[in-house]
Give the backbone structure.
Amino acid sequence: MTITCDALVAGYGEQKVLKGLSLALSPGAINVLIGPNGCGKSTLLRTAAGLLKPVSGEVQLDNKPIGQWPRRKLARQISFLPQAPVVPENMTVAQLVEQGRFAHRGLLGGMRGEDRDAVDWALEQTGLTAFRARSVAGLSGGERQRVWIAAALAQQTQIVLLDEPTTYLDIGHQLEVLELLQDLSRNRALTVLISLHEISHALMFGDRIFLMENGHLRFEGSPAALAETDLLQTVFAVEGSFRRLDRGVLAFLGERSRGRDAPGVTLAAE
């Protein structure tokens, strides 16, 4: 099961953010969206999840227009974690993660054995078993983010869309989340589409890279293929180079912004 986007034009009101973008996810792989802020990554994720109707073009899930899928059936196939989800008041960690089972049990359906197993598994995978009775509102930003990821995992879909899920995490938990997604992709054939701010993480964990700029797709392919171009330097307006690290992992070292006297931000470090 996979998602394809064909000539997508989408946005908000009169503002067109996606401008004829087409792509197809690699099934059972980590597909990573990168690009400057405002390039359309979040809009693409919302459109691919069926939450934003395109102005023109089409999103298909298994060769069927996504708009033709019943909402509950679609929620059994695709889970989506937005960039800044609202934290519910007076809800425990376990209760929030249980929300991921809604598509499987319905509005009035009670928790069954399989639902409890899915919640327990998601909590264990995200290191939150000991937090299950804690209030979500009392957690740190990083802990809350892990709870939302657990809710997405509890949904047990074959496709998971995540909009910069590592933003509020420290470096150790960032790597834990990405390693978890990589493990699920490889061992459970999970198809992941994830937007990442850290270029080094995109190169390290991405099986397929989608580089966006101003609502267009500038590149799609493997990290190694991207390293044969100068597109990162062009799109991010930096001077830099690729380095091959241990185990064949690539890193991009952004040395300085182009056209400025002051050094630019480092996009990755050895």
Remarks:
- Confidence is low (pLDDT under 50) at residues 260-270.
- The longest strand covers residues 3-12.
- The chain has ten helices and twelve strands.
- The CA atoms of residues 30 and 247 lie 18 Å apart.
